[in-house]
Amino acid sequence: MSRVVAYRLLGSLAAIFGASLLAFLIMRVLPGDPARIILGPLATPKALAEVNHQLGLDQPIFAQYWHYISDFFTGNWGYSYTLNASVSSLFVERFPATIELALFSFVLTMGAAVILALLSTYRHRPVTDAIVRGASYIGFGTPPFFLALLLLIIFFKSLHWLPGPEGRLQVGASEPPAVTHLFLIDSLLAGQLNTFWESLRHMLLPAIALGIGSFSFMVRLLRANLLEVSREPFITVARGKGLPRWTAFRRHALPNAFLPTLTSAGLVLGEFLAGSVLIERVFDWPGIGSLVFEAIVKQDFAIVQAFILLSAVIFVLVNLMVDLLYAVIDPRVRIPAVTSA
Questions:
Q1: Which CATH code fits 90-299?
Q2: Nearest-CA neighbor of 277 among 266, 262, 261, 290?
Q3: Contacts (Cβ under 8 Å, ≥6 apart) of 7
Q4: Going by C-beta distance under 8 Å and a sequence separation of 6 or more, which residues neighbour residue 91?
Q5: Domain with CATH 1.10.3720.10 in the chain
Q6: Which pTM value belongs to this model?
Q7: Tell me: the pLDDT tens digits for 100-152?
């Protein structure tokens, strides 16, 4: 087990190093002078040189990279001159909204995928199976931002069932007392059921738009795993011992089919936490994605650079935890490490 953990940690560190190097190099080759962006087009060469010195851009490239990576892991993520605030404070302010949207979308996606995969495979009726497979094609063929606009047109503009791009709550509404900074949880802790309901309504459309692509993948993957496991001999043995069909399916088929899906679930959660830029922009969601979109438009490279590396760290850590959890749940993952010792 220790060797499995060591391999996973080394792979995670290598991935973070590669992402940091990529983010660092991209910001250096993009057109535009950070000092010129900060001071404006009328800045003198002397003023530009002073700003470049303050930013460390006059140092050798290896020294710049070392300062960049060391500053990131010590919490110094730079300063946003367009918003007049430190990047770390902006991320702390915006990140709870992104976390709440990502977690809600993840629960919604995985819950729908499990339910529909079970409906498709439990009795394996052709009509139900065809409907589930047809629903899974929606996410494969529809870009998330287009689906977000379509959802707004249908449920906000035409039917008036759900709110539009207003953020986490309607304009003028008071936020619940901040405990976790997650509105759904904080409103329940404060007993504010109206705030909970409004927060839930505002979150539904962006969560669906964010998760539809991953839902399509997960439902097809879980459906295929369930069909394969349901044909295994141990299911027949369980039924032969007198277990009802649903009990055998729930206790034996679903857990074994879900194990291969666990790794993909980690990828999905990492993607939701780090890849909601366009969805947040469409729905005016006040998270990290909206902040990064504005930073790209304004060429605020400090925010973009920190976001790229933070996304890589989040993605790698989530999948590292999933890999370790998989090794704990399934002993077969640890067999190569034991036999080679």
A1: 1.10.3720.10
A2: 290
A3: none
A4: 77, 288, 291, 306, 307, 310
A5: 90-299
A6: 0.85
A7: 999 999 999 999 998 888 888 877 778 888 888 887 887 777 788 888 999 99
